[in-house]
Batch of 4 targets.
Target 1
Amino acid sequence: MEKKNVLITGASRGIGRSIALKFAAEGYHVFLNCRASLDKLNEVKTVIEKEYHTSCGIVTGDVGDPRDVSGIFEQIHRSCGCLDVLVNNAGISYIGLLMDMRDDEWRRVIDTNLSSVFYCCRAAIPPMISRRSGRIINISSMWGNAGASCEAAYSASKAGVNGLTRALAKELAPSNIQVNAIACGVIDTDMNRQLSEDERQALEDAIPAGRYGTTDEVAQVVWDAAHAPAYLTGQVIGVDGGYL
Ligand code: NDP
């Protein structure tokens, strides 16, 4: 049987790395992307080839830059014709008062977290429509629903991802392409490493589950959503330990 193909953006570490390992373990050909951490991406490729004996390709580039995304999809479509699954995971955080935020900082958050989803979906969709099948999973945040103090740009970017998910799902349902988002709570990755021990403890106390989520838990939900019945589309699925 022909291998299925998935692209995971931001796969060098954290949530994206775990998603990549999950799809590889299930026999997918995995396209791995990140912007800068090529050494870490190569390490993920080595793990995939050694542990799961499956093939894997590297497509580096800034997914917030439409020229880089064109290059990434030229490589992918030359290699496999059409993705079965696109996981838009790459993202950055920005913590600080909105009134202190510079224009370039705002643009970087919106480009990386939201415009990237537009660029990658735009490139992935045409062959999916021709084939009348495809799954798109966008990694969002509970702050896209609730809003976080000192994370206004980040919250706005993820609220945008949620809106894009719901609208695109309606646009693509007639073509049998499903689009869903996973709204993560606090997940134990580098993104939260800047917090002090006290801040971490306060956050854990506020989470009904009493702990951060793991990247493997998110990867499992992404896998499940990507293989759910086709009637699951346009949903923003919370994985937040009961926080919201
Ligand atoms: P990490 O910081 O651990 O990893 C981020 C990944 O994204 C890295 O592989 C990084 O690679 C890549 N990346 C960043 N910018 C770009 C870019 N412009 N182009 C391509 N790749 C890029 O983050 P997490 O694993 O924690 O987060 C993954 C996703 O989950 C993000 O969308 C985040 O917003 C979301 N999320 C995370 C939560 C958490 O608590 N951790 C909570 C809610 C949502 P490189 O270094 O090479 O740029």
Target 2
Amino acid sequence: MKFIAFNVREDEEKYFAQWVDETGNEVLRLPDMLDMSTVDKTKGFDGVLALQTGVYPDEMFAKFKEYGVKVFSIRNVGVDNINLEAAKKNGIVVTNVPAYSPNAIAEFSVTQLMQLLRNTTIFRNKVAKQDFRWAPYVGKELRSLTVGVVGTGRIGRAAIDIYRGFGAKVIAYDLYPNPELKKLGIYVDSYDELFSNADVITLHMPATPADQHLVNTENLNKMKDGSYIINTARGALIDTKALIEALKSGKLAGAALDTYENESDIFNHDLSNQEIKDATFKELLALDNVLVTPHVAFYTETAVENMVLIALNSAKDVCKDGTASTVVK
Ligand code: COI
């Protein structure tokens, strides 16, 4: 079988090479993004692997069909950027990697919140200027806070365990509550209740059309003064302009953003010698109570290995058996 993989990074290479050695299949690895300007490269391949957060145009699936591609395997979990109907219409099976490492993302949520709570960026900057005073940057402890977890799938559940391990009171909201978690009595019945009772909101859900800009002025206004937002999920869940207002007014004490609504031209690109054109993003970067990271919550050795190997095995299974356990329905 012959596969083509887009957006391949150096740190993925050894897992691709290992799989090729073990299975004897062919995988052409390219650093390029997959879009309409590169889709012609997929001609003659059985399957296409990609990993990116931008939208894949519907016409791409028609091209796949024309070029004989059977399967589109994404090396990540989120499929909210894929029009599954367009894929189905063209007979393309889509697979994802539903659980490459929920802990990677959950741990990052806690890592970033802890930094905000203990003002580590502020202290690092002060120490760099030889200002070793403490006040007024007194921190907060997790066990004095209520953490609101939005989305209780695999990642949300890992986050709940870690936050509870630190002694935080956890409340959670999900349209489809998990029966096991229900026994913990942590679910609230509405976003209203979640936003008004949490000191911290951490997002662990896909960005469905219904949840676009879930964190908006209205919901932010329900929050306690001096609360925190952590987003390691999808940028589209937050109305960034509303968030900036809340950070400036003190409604929010801080935010950690590992995703951003217009991130695809920014994150995982070297823009060090360029002016950033996105004025809203520039404004975010200038705020000292915001931690911006370039969609790296997932980025651990465990996760990268699983993303590559599971996506390759899924593509192989679909080509061999017509289906795989990771087919997105
Ligand atoms: C995902 O797995 O959906 C992520 O957000 C990771 C990213 C590299 C696409």
Target 3
Amino acid sequence: MRKWKGRLIALGVTLAVLVPLAYLWATSLVPNDYSAMDMGYADYGGGPSSGHQHHGGQHQNGKGVADLTGPRTGKPDVAVTLVAKKQKFTLASGESMDGFTLNGSSPGPLIRAKQGQLVEVTLVNESVPDGATLHWHGIDVPNGEDGVAGVTQDAVPVGGKHVYRFLADDVGTYWYHSHQVSSEEVRGGLFGTIVIDGADDDVIAAIHTYDGKRTINGRTGSQRVEVAAGKKVRVRVINTDNTIVRTGLVGAQYKVIAVDGRELHGPTPVTAAFPLAAGARVDLEAVVPASGALRLDAGTVSMEIGSGTASAEPLPSATVDLLSYGTRAPLGLDPAKADRRFEYRIGRRPGFLDGVPGLWWTINGHKFPDVPMYMVAEGDVVVMKISNSSGQAHPMHLHGHHAVVLSRNGVAATGTPWWIDTLEVGDKETYEIAFLADNPGIWMDHCHNLPHASEGLMTHLAYEGVSTPYQIGGKHGNEPE
Ligand code: C2O
Ligand code: CU
């Protein structure tokens, strides 16, 4: 009977579609609680594996994240308490917001320390329902102070507190932010700035978009910083948003003197825009013109620096390219003698992530949480090739380390050593970077367009022999992204 045969074929076709789909759905489910150490599969990058059970198990003679802390004793030189709240608050420019504050404001307080000082920050969670942490973005602190919920600590619940202690060894411009449900908490304002060894009269400019309103230091529109004509200023620009910002000084030539907390070598004066990746920082230096003022342009917001009238000129269309900016200097490591070579290939494909159908990011062809765990040993020189064919740009951020850019799309870097902690990798771009594995721990390596990280564009760099007692999920509800 033809009708039956037709129905059987239809049923067969349906099953042939549904069974694999059900399988894909079921295998995409992320367990409710799991250890970062159990995530995905170990990638040794051509280096040795210890042969011990270092991945996904307890390590007998290894170290725990909790052992890798800053100094536990000693009187801090800089002691700050930051109280986190979920609340309605008012921006410095007057608009009312619903989000998150530290000590009643967003951005939270600027923390300043001199090089070598002991910094102690006590985070108190007064009312952030999902819990909170503080991550010291770009400061290569010991792993136990890194502030990643479920990896280096438990999220601080309402009514709880957590003390971070670290030495301010890394001079430069940084910021701090919650690394618990970070895609919501950072956007909502749970962040602040931290400068190590800056001068008191440096200008700080933290760019953040609250509910569609771009701000600098919490102010929309145009704001002024009074600086005498003829004075040289250092402007520390911090991009706390999820996407790249074209910024730069208008009204005089400027130099790009530091990026991600690292001084550049042989910077030359430019009139151009600087592409500042999400999470990244840039220090610009210029002399306030005798008549007029400098203008820091950040798209819909600006800061006038000086006492005269600032130029209304838009940012030039030219862009500073650090691949060839400044002059060469020794890197302090030899990438040709790398102990490990990794690939971090970013792609995108349809499928399920934790049971939800969609177009999801992939790392080396794998969807979260089945992603590579990059395994290193202390002292390794590591080369990583990051390539992107996902259709979108990704500001890639490695915790706990600074890496130097070796090449872009096969073209070798010829300018200043270009050290980064956050690197914009555009669609169809390939970067080779190198770093020294000198900070043992389990370190996130993720996209700083934070919604992308929560959609699976995140993995870890892990040192052999280091384990974490913390769990993602679990009774603390740890959810780093
Ligand atoms: Cu600024 Cu993992 O973050
Ligand atoms: Cu991304």
Target 4
Amino acid sequence: MEIVLSGIRSTGKLHLGNYYGALLNFVQMQHEHKCFFFIADYHSLTTHPTPTDLHGSVKQVLAEYLACGLDPEIATLYVQSDLPQVPELYLLLNMNAYVGELERCTSFKEKIRKHPDNINAGLLTYPTLMAADILIHKATMVPVGKDQEQHLEMTRTFANRFNRLYKVDYFPEPVAYNFGKELVKIPGLDGSGKMGKSEGNAIYLYDDPKTIRSKVMKAVTDSGPTQPNQEKSEPVKNLFTLMRVVSDPETYSYFEEQYSSCHIRYGDMKKQLAEDIIRITTPIRERIEEILANDAYLSQVAHHGAEKARESASKTINEVRQIIGFRNF
Ligand code: TYM
């Protein structure tokens, strides 16, 4: 049995990228492995949310996990800041994480390019906090999207470095995991890059049908193919990628064929895509609403999860302290 762990930042509602990149894989794995799933609220502090927003987002994301099918009786479902062992391991790992390697991390470089006025140390050490999340439970499989591949590579580096430094074989090497073998990248609706919370190009699980239709109909396309089997432009490729994920294979093939033979009408394709997304998100949105209205249940889930997660985390941190040489007087 593997130890599986994944998490999502509590920076707002979950979008289709989070769902297909991480959550759905996790939901499918929870019955077969020892699974931990958490809400990364420390990570969300890099963007300085207000206290009300911070708590509101954690509650929303917790309700969304449950609505997507995470079973808190089977998997361990918790909030990152409920485990004091995580920041402790983060501190210890930071002693062996080099500034140069952190500065070379793609996600850090991207953040400083986009937000040059907020280059804080939390952003620089984001990968060590993520490594602490994973190593605190000695997880071996981490269901994530393609954008997290490099963070996983860094986690392996930190784990191996710890083992070498203290001449132990303590931390396992975690691998990024997707059910379909390939890590996925769900594109946004703006014609470039990936779907993301901060990009303004996302469809959220909590969006109502009207919002979804309007977002999809506005998705960027091009003026259409002019010759058979023409190479697709980036925005059109993205639309097809989304369709492959949410629609039936027959629907996907139909529009592929329409494209190849230059008969495609993007308006029709978008209408179909929007309806297929709505079919998937509507039951989830209804469950989110139900769960959000039940504070007592959310609180019970968070307490129960924190207790289970602390048990595993405190075992690891005690062993790590012994390995490093902390001794009680
Ligand atoms: P976050 O909150 O940006 O995203 C959460 C998960 O969703 C995946 N994802 C995507 N997958 C495919 N296509 C997309 N467009 C897309 N957008 C997001 C991400 O790959 C991720 O799996 N650092 C993490 C949170 C985290 C974590 C961890 C994850 C903190 N500690 C430990 C795993 C293990 C993050 O910011 O994800």
